[in-house]
Design a protein that fits this description.
Two copies of one chain form a homodimer. Chain A has nine helices and 15 strands. Chain A is α/β, with parallel strands linked by helices and 344 residues long. The model of chain A has no long low-confidence stretch (mean pLDDT 94). β13 of chain A pairs antiparallel with β13 of chain B.
């Protein structure tokens, strides 16, 4: 089902999920392609980024940093688009832009938050290795995690859009890197392709014990992007003065009510205190102004030199976005998940 | 039961507590007063500081930052002592020193960790307003909490040795200060004597609602020294970029096993993330080298100018230390708890 010149396919929020989203929470509808007014551009989506934070936008009370999606409105999301028509002085027809057109073929924009991309051999990188997920890894690891040579860094979702970059940058900074990923294939990839020192299977019933075995000197930085059982395995191994950047807790995005006990908070707080641990949440939107240039410069260099590798999990066709997104929350993607909505 | 010249009364750890300590976990015994060898001093205890962290020292596996007390050995603790006899070049007979002689009348020291106090009108201040508890407040609030003028600071145990100083320094820095304390007398004292803007009773069944009412602009700094229900009331009110120095979780020191659910950790982590909160444990022992001089200078000034007030809860007699300590863990003290072991 390719893009049409006249019809705008949209994936709209059909109902608010209870727990994990199901296909019925999404609906594909069609509207006419809109016409740009003065000061507007019409965008045609090439790539749509799918990211875990979108789960929060589906709830009635969304996260504090972004408005929740209204019922019947298109799902929100970062996109690489081509300018189809422009009545905006800063953008010209046919150029590539990074924006937030959402889960649809076409969108209007007044230029706010829109960035011209110039020529890119691999435009999807703008929502991956040179975009938000890798930038999240960069800021969280370097500014909050601050790994020193010889320290041990642990990151989960190790082959995901954020985790893979965290681990590779940590290696570049001289740290020992332990990944945690779902399944043998991903673990092999993390070690053989990404250069992690070790990667453990998160489904291993003995995860806590295995992690202790491969961290004989404890853990200095834990990049938290999953929560759940991984945090439990990490907590007792954290060293004095460990840093825990908190970037996501994907394991809990589908929680509907407080989980049953035991209550793990007192132990976490006591550990924080006794080991003088710093735990800090961050939202990458806060850091574009002060850190994005440094990120783009460093990351472009590392990619060009082959020091950081990226794997994309490309899904073809806007209509497959809901299933792909549901799979992302279950860890079924292998690499940065993007939907190729159109070729060019 | 006054001090004797020949008998050393000691409060030793008789058994390791299960949950809250009881009087039977302590035993008063008597040994001969020891004789100092070359390079040693004999100390006679004047004031013994009682502090919540001591609960951790009673467990077989103590906190990471201090060794646990052995069964049959005197309880550990900070003291103001008089040098009775000295074979140490740095200390002379009859001078006042700050040290860690523990819960006993006499102790030997090789001078390590011993500080000459000079003449002090109120020597007990060395373990209170000019010592560890106030220094804890100073470093935790200023270095980690970093309150800005107009921000809202919340501190529990508001009339305690740490909390009272946290609140008063926060006021000096221009913050709005909400205390939480046990009972109407303490609350009145926090507002009328210490100058807190508001103080709420921690036993109020509507604590969470009351706190929300008195924090219309949310909470920017929560100085965590209690844990438990106070943390639950604070968490939903924390603002973006709030700071949470974690200095103690007294509510949990007696926990024997993980508490029943619900599990509060996922919600805490999600809040940390969404609001970009920094939560950081600290142990004051780490900061003596770099921050103690600044603390002593500032605090001496504030005390002299009457800008910071201190209330001591003085218990007379070493033999009453166990009951006083048990009361401290229950919040029965009113001000910095010290045992006057001898007058001079």
């Amino acid at each position: 089902m390719p893009q049409s010149d006249t019809v705008n396919r949209r994936i709209v929020l059909a109902s608010r999920p209870h727990g994990a989203p199901t296909p019925r929470d999404f609906r594909l509808d069609q509207t006419p392609v809109p016409t740009p007014g003065d000061g507007q551009v019409l965008l045609r989506t090439l790539y749509l980024s799918l990211d875990p934070y979108m789960r929060g936008l589906m709830d009635e009370i969304g996260p504090s940093y972004a408005p929740s999606v209204k019922l019947g409105e298109p799902m929100a999301g970062g996109t690489v688009s081509r300018v189809v028509a422009s009545k905006h002085p800063r953008f010209r027809e046919s150029e590539l832009v990074l924006g937030a057109a959402g889960w649809q073929d076409y969108a209007l924009s007044d230029g706010e938050g829109l960035t011209a991309l110039g020529d890119m051999a691999q435009p999807s990188l703008a929502v991956g290795g040179l975009g938000m997920p890798a930038f999240t890894a960069y800021v969280g690891l370097l500014d909050i995690g601050q790994p020193k040579p010889g320290e041990t860094v642990v990151v989960a979702a190790a082959t995901g859009a954020v985790g893979a970059v965290v681990g590779q940058i940590a290696k570049l900074k001289g740290a020992r890197v332990i990944g945690i990923a779902g399944g043998a294939d991903k673990c092999r990839y993390a070690v053989e392709e990404l250069g992690f020192d070790v990667c453990l299977d998160r489904n291993d019933a003995q995860l806590a014990q295995r992690l202790a075995e491969v961290c004989p000197n404890g853990i200095d930085v834990y990049f938290e992007n999953v929560g759940g059982v991984v945090f439990d395995a990490v907590l007792p191994l954290l060293n004095n003065y460990a840093r825990v950047p908190v970037c996501g807790v994907i394991a809990h995005y589908n929680d509907e009510a407080p989980l049953p006990g035991p209550d793990r908070l007192p132990q976490a707080m006591s550990t924080l205190l006794q080991k003088r641990i710093r735990m800090e949440g961050f939202i990458i939107l806060d850091h574009y102004a002060d850190r994005f240039d440094a990120f783009r410069r460093d990351m472009s260099e590392w990619l060009a030199a082959g020091k950081v590798k990226l794997r994309e999990d490309v899904v073809d066709g806007l209509e497959h976005a809901p299933a792909a997104f549901i799979g992302l929350l279950e860890g079924r993607n292998f690499g940065k998940l993007v939907v190729r909505v159109a070729d060019a």
